Amino acid sequence: MMRGHAVEYAVEQKLKEQTTDTKKLVNEYYDKLGLQNKFDREKLSTLRVGLNDMVEEAVKELDKYGTLISAQDWLDFKIQVEIEGEFYDVPMTGRTDFFMESKDGARVLVDLKTTSRMPSAVPFGTKIQQVLYSRATNYRTDLLYVGYGAKGVKSKSFTVDNDPSITKIVRDTIISMETLLRLTDDRDILKRIITPNPDDWSWNDDNAYKKRKEVWGW
Q1: Helix, strand, or coil here: 17?
Q2: I want to staple 99 with a disulfide (CB 3.0 to 4.6 A). Which of 69, 149, 189, 195 is the partner?
Q3: Is the residue at 171 inside a domain?
Q4: How confident is the model at residue 8 (pLDDT cuts 50, 70, 90)?
Q5: What integer pLDDT is reported at residue 110 of this predicted model?
Q6: pLDDT in tens, 128-149
Q7: Which DSSP category does 64 fall into?
Q8: Does residue 106 belong to any structural domain of this protein?
Q9: What is the CATH number of the domain that holds 65?
């Protein structure tokens, strides 16, 4: 995750023409994140390998889209859900990585992912995210994967289809959550019913991690 944050930051600064020395920038930013997370400097030096290669590869691929309009934009939108005959506008929040515009005026949201292994297809959870962004903005959404391994740097792009079944899945999930909460508001019962998934980022941001530790103890 730290590598991804550092690469995204350096790519953004390069596209905004705020820097010409991406290697220095990405390494310094990565070190800053590492020290905040109490990594020792020797370990940081090892983990820096390939960072700037990924930055340069991402910039090269993003340049193919055209010009950067904005980066790291927050999206606030709503999904309407019907529960037991009543309609609710459920608020959603997301953040896009790079909003690009081509010479012919076409616009696309590009989400940059750093990875150690190139996927053969878009992971389902990621597809849900991108389809929601597309429906919220009416722009095409692409995924750009960049990784570094034994054979050097690699990249791969996907265009995410605006699959209408995804919205149904999201609505069904919201209904399931609301149905569960209507059964009981007893914290101990809910604790026994729900099992956190530590591999899911939504359980691991600072606030979610704190709450997870408080309720489940891990």
Answers
A1: coil
A2: 69
A3: no
A4: very high
A5: 97
A6: 999 999 999 999 999 999 999 8
A7: T
A8: yes
A9: 3.40.1350.10
In a domain, 23, yes or no: yes
pTM, two decimals, is 0.83
Its domain, for residue 79, covers 2-165
Place of tokens 């990565």: 30
- Tell me: pLDDT of 46 over 80: no
Total tally of structural domains belonging to the chain? 1
Exposed/middle/buried for residue 120 (C-beta within 10 Å: 0-12, 13-18, 19+): exposed
Using CA atoms, how far residue 86 sits from 77, 81, 82, 83, 185, in Å, is 19, 8, 5, 5, 20
**Helix, strand, or coil (residue 50):** coil
The one-character DSSP state at 13 is: H
Length of the chain: 218
Are 54 and 25 in contact by the 8 Å Cβ rule? The answer is: no
